[in-house]
């Protein structure tokens, strides 16, 4: 199958941080207590509807926090909409967000698993996309292990919680998440079927 190699931030959208990042991981650890209930003390959430933050690129995490704050101040018209996260970011300063991002980025993400029955089809979609449907290969931007790249703004997606991945792709497809640059992920996600989303979300857990 011919691969479509196009810029793709599979889950979280392209990141462009205007401010220089200057987070302090130790300071972030001290500020992270309220995050632990959903994301775990080290960013490895065991509640699978919430994302693992451990090992994620710091600049990406900072971008998401600032987008939540923008969503809060604009009533969801800009940034990223999430009522729970609005309450979490309301009292955070810019430095707080940078410190939290630095802390969770410094932690090691726990590995996950991929159900045997989705490995073959998941690998085919992740590595090769689907030329007939105009779906780009995820590997082009996120790499063979789903590590992404900080400089280009592509997030780490390998070992991520499957339930969170599924919900995120569905949000992009429905347009309820709109903090992707130039609508890139919304354009891609609307081409994914329910089965595609289920397979990709489960495949990324172990990322064979």
Automatic annotation (TrEMBL):
Pfam families in alphabetical order: Cytochrom_C
PROSITE patterns, sorted: CYTC (PS51007)
InterPro entries in alphabetical order: Cyt_c-like_dom (IPR009056), Cyt_c-like_dom_sf (IPR036909), Cyt_C_IC (IPR008168), Cytochrome_c4-like (IPR024167), Cytochrome_c_Oxidase_Subunit (IPR050597)
Keyword Heme belongs to the record: yes
Keyword Ribonucleoprotein: no
Signal peptide range: 1-20
Keywords, ordered alphabetically: Electron transport, Heme, Iron, Metal-binding, Periplasm, Signal, Transport
Subcellular location: Periplasm
Cytochrome c domain location: 23-108, 117-208
PANTHER family assigned to the protein according to its UniProt record, in alphabetical order: CBB3-TYPE CYTOCHROME C OXIDASE SUBUNIT FIXP (PTHR33751), CYTOCHROME C4 (PTHR33751:SF9)
Protein name listed in UniProt: Cytochrome c4
